[in-house]
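fyi for ur records
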Amino acid sequence: MSTRVMVYGMRIPPRITKIGAAGALASALLVGGTAVAATPAVATTHVATAHVRTVHANDVGKVCYSQLPSQAHDTLKLIDQGGPFPYPKDGTVFTNAEGVLPAQSADYYHEYTVVTPGSPTRGARRIVTGEKQQEDYYTADHYKTFNLVDRGC
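which gave:
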């Protein structure tokens, strides 16, 4: 069951509430911003331009933290601090509609933008977090593939 905490209208991600909403609020105030707030999945079939693709949760790869772009490091630091986040959609529920990540409750995952230098939009890069501590997935292709971030390498 997910816990969502609202502190004076600010969204605090569920993982942060385990650390403490007060800590997230304090860190947001110190930096002058605002805090924004396992069973394998059943295979799903996606149809795109005459191709049929079956995706399994076991297809999620791993990536070393050191191999991520520096902007992903920045996003992970913001998540660990509870914000402030640069985009209004950061911290919102990621529904896992693609079925690539392990099946969980509807509000288990949350998404955050990884800034793409030179992009006029949010770009395709994201960090999607689960409720477990350091359950962070990186995607560079807007949810087509995910890699679990390994902070130990």
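Strands lie at 5-7, 10-12, 44-48, 51-55, 61-64, 92-94, 109-113, 126-129, 136-139, 147-150. thats all i got for now
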